[in-house]
């Protein structure tokens, strides 16, 4: 148990469906992330929220829509997905700490949930 | 183009021997490196990290070495145990980024009893 919980663990959806992935962290962190891991590919960062504001958006298609209502919860809303969107979606959280000059501290370790295995038919 | 590469997709090692997992990177702005371990049906878990101001960091059976001139890092596990069998990911973070980790594609380690 890493303190980051993702639901559901598995999801099968059609291309016309709308579904949401949920992530909750119990670590008191102030930053949350969505990653995508496709087969035989590295983890790809999709979105980052820090203090509930989106700070990174890596050219992700608009059919993926993140939502961060508070620092403990993160959602990924899915609609009209394509079969190539089938992948493992991982949520992570970290404590974003900075020096007095605004430089990030080294030890902003990201802690991951177990992921949602998504299949788009 | 991948900025972090793990060129060995798999590695098999006898229990008790040393496991050496390798990682190469291309971006000279990377100043912090991490290793994560992933078991099936679980998320990646943080294992060990190293800052670019060091060339070695040790934590029990796990040691990470960093060769900045070669842009290469390695994870040594000694002695290897069957419970170490997992996929190991190398990740790097750039100097000016608090958030963005660039991951390698992973190396699957099998430790044979």
Written account of the structure:
The complex is a heterodimer of chains A (121) and B (113). Chain A is an all-beta fold. In chain A, 0% of the residues lie in helices and 53% in strands. In chain A, the strands form two sheets. In chain A, strands 2, 4, 5, 6, 9, 10 and 11 form a seven-stranded mixed β-sheet that branches. The termini of chain A are far apart. In chain A, 33% of the residues are buried. The model of chain A has no long low-confidence stretch (mean pLDDT 88). With 113 residues, chain B is mostly beta strands. Chain B has strands at 4-5, 10-14, 19-25, 30-38, 45-51, 56-59, 62-67, 72-77, 86-94, 101-103, 107-112. In chain B, strands 2, 4, 5, 9, 10 and 11 form a six-stranded mixed β-sheet that branches. The mean pLDDT of chain B is 94. Chains A and B meet through strand 5, strand 9 and strand 10 of A and strand 4, strand 5 and strand 10 of B.
Compute the separation of the termini of chain B in Å. Answer: 37 Å
Name the structural class of chain B: mainly beta
The ordered string of helix (H) and strand (E) elements of chain B is EEEEEEEEEEE
β-sheet strand percentage of chain A: over 45%
Order of secondary-structure elements of chain A: EEEEEEEEEEE
Instruction: Round the mean pLDDT of chain B to the nearest integer and report it.
Output: 94
Into which percent range does the helicity of residues of chain B fall? under 10%
Helix content of chain A: under 10%
> What is the assembly state of the chains in this entry?
heterodimer
